[in-house]
Amino acid sequence: MGAKTAKKLEGVAASEGVAVGPAFFYDPARLEPERSGISGDEVEAEIERFEKAVEAVAGQLSKIAKKLEEEGAGEEAEIFEAHIELARDLELSESVEERIRDLQSPEAAVLAAGEEFAGMFAAMEDEYMAARADDVRDVTGQIAAELMGRKAGGLETLERPAVILARNLAPSETARLPKGIVLGLVTAEGSRTSHVAIMARSMGIPAVVGVGGALEGVRDASIVAVDGTEGYAMADPDEETTADFEIKERQMAAEREALEEFRHTEARTLDGQRIEVSANLGSHHEAGDALSWGAEGVGLFRTEFLFMEREELPSEDEQYEAYAAVARAFGEKPVIIRTLDVGGDKDLPGIDQPEEENPFLGWRGIRMCLDTPELFKPQLRAILRAATEGNLKVMFPMVADVEEIRAAKAVLKECRKELEDEGTEFGEVEIGVMIETPAAAVCAPELAKAVSFFSVGTNDLVQYTLAADRGNERLRRLQRPDHPAVMELIRCACEAAEEAGIWVGVCGEAAADEALIPRFVELGITELSMSPPSIPKAKKVISEISGTPAT
Ligand code: PEP
Ligand code: MG
């Protein structure tokens, strides 16, 4: 038998690290309903069976969520909590019941309704919302499997270490992966924000996603090498490639080991300049994990996730609980709560959003909040109330001019007055603004007089400066925070901040970019906020910076 030829699969670097191992092509047979129809006198009993199946699945999911929560994996636990809500979704169950009344079997009804709902999500332009189509299929598949008395999934039976190749992996499948056995993941679908990517990152499994149709061409691969740092995989690598991967693997393990000493140190450059390394959070459940990675604060709490994965808007009290929980966890360390940055491209349940021609240039962030006080005020009130519990700051997104800051500050003042009149306890918060539109960078001298800090949102600043949609794969060449135009805008913002005596941080993805950290420090940036696992490495990079930063 001749040696197989090596094939390269290019994709998105979803989770750092390298691995080489036997390939396991995961190809679950499509779940087909056992019966398509029922008779009229079975309708009520089948609806009841469907309802029981929903509760059984919700029960299984809540056990997984509880286990993950106990293990400190809050972000993953939230995914399963969202799945429980999906399983119990009223619209979904109404659609299934209608189909059962039309004499479809419950398993056929739930699979068909799942497809219809998944199709609606998949058609959404926003990458995050489109990725929710997989969640719907995952949950409805589990309900159908329950109705037919079968087990969903099957990966839990994997017994030997392997690199898993799959079209996609549902969150429930990823969470059921046996620990220590999965060496790496390669999926045809997915992006950096799909759940498989989020979970692989937090599980520390090297992963490449979005390799597309090329995956089909390596179905019979025996060995696969994955480079989740560079974003490619090699099917049936030759000896030389395997040896290279083994070297990379050893280097990375040694690097991880060496980074341990930086985890809980204060980051300082060689000449003693203190740079705060903070965490970006999407949920209050992530606070403990972020602290264990050595977070010195929260540079960005993206509050929109609190609003998005649910049916109704969270109440002021619910928001208060979430913000207060992070404030308490971080104690004296600063926690920056960013006000709702949703709109245009992201539908918010409970809010009537218009269809827009150019959603990224539309009614989003601060623009939407200022027009919707019924949304904005409860959030600001909750932040002010939670400020008694720790060191909270508030930050406004998508700001284009100082008028917006003045208007937002006026609403904040109104909220303070209301709380005072009611006799409700609240604390003071510093106010900051994100520099993520070119307009904000250009108007930075004026903005700097109105706020206490800037935080550069490189993800949006890049897309707006270079007129290159941040989700468009074809524009990778332009999606570069080190583009001279972007760096010049950051420089302008830093100069204006220095003049006004306020500090500047970076909370976009570029904050963890090893090559850019020294340049940011040189520009006078004193805080970098990133996904928690990147913190130790960033602290190390900072500790190696020499030269006196601009003052
Ligand atoms: C950014 O734009 O860089 C940012 C941090 O905000 P988000 O990624 O949430 O838009
Ligand atoms: Mg942004």
What does the secondary structure layout of this molecule look like, with pairings?
Layout: E1 7-10, E2 12-15, E3 18-26, H1 43-70, H2 74-87, H3 90-101, H4 106-122, H5 127-130, H6 132-147, E4 162-166, H7 171-175, E5 182-187, H8 195-203, E6 207-209, E7 223-227, E8 232-235, H9 239-259, E9 276-281, H10 287-292, E10 298-302, H11 304-308, H12 316-330, E11 334-338, H13 365-371, H14 373-386, E12 391-396, H15 402-422, E13 430-435, H16 438-442, H17 444-450, E14 453-456, H18 458-465, H19 484-500, E15 503-506, H20 517-523, E16 527-530, H21 535-543
Parallel strand pairs: 3-4, 4-5, 5-6, 9-10, 9-16, 10-11, 11-12, 12-13, 13-14, 14-15, 15-16
Antiparallel strand pairs: 1-8, 2-6, 3-7, 7-8
Helix pairs in contact: 1-2, 1-3, 1-6, 2-6, 3-4, 4-6, 12-14, 14-15, 17-19
CATH superfamily of the largest domain: Phosphoenolpyruvate-binding domains
Shape: globular
Strand content: 5-15%
Strand segment count: 16
Number of helices: 21
**In total, how many domains does the architecture comprise?**
3
Distance between the termini: 67 Å
Sheet of most strands: 8 strands, mixed
Integer-rounded radius of gyration: 25 Å
**Distinct ligands:** phosphoenolpyruvate, magnesium ion
Report the helical percentage.
40-55%
Tell me the structural class.
Answer: alpha/beta
